[in-house]
Prior knowledge:
This protein is mainly β.
Amino acid sequence: MAGLTTHILDVMSGNPAAGVRVELYRSSGEAWTLVREIITNADGRADQPLLEPEETETAVYELRFHIGDYFGPNGAEDSVRPFLDIVPVRITIGDLDRHYHVPLLVAPWSYTTYRGS
């Protein structure tokens, strides 16, 4: 199954990060086009794929995770101005027959990601 999905885990609490806004952009040379915007559900996932197989193109994409909005009201020490604001993750989709999954493991002060399955 081709396409693109994501999920977010709040490693500070050990729970899925619900209610996080995620924007997906596609590069067209110097310009970036907003493809989709979602809010993560109670499981820290989108209810639908960010890209369905039929709309996936070989291109450079950027996911923008609005983590500052999530941690501000959720108990980070510096809740007035969180250390992380928008976490950008830029990926290349090169094989339209493969599925791409981008997990984000995040705390108020750090994050990591990888190519999931």
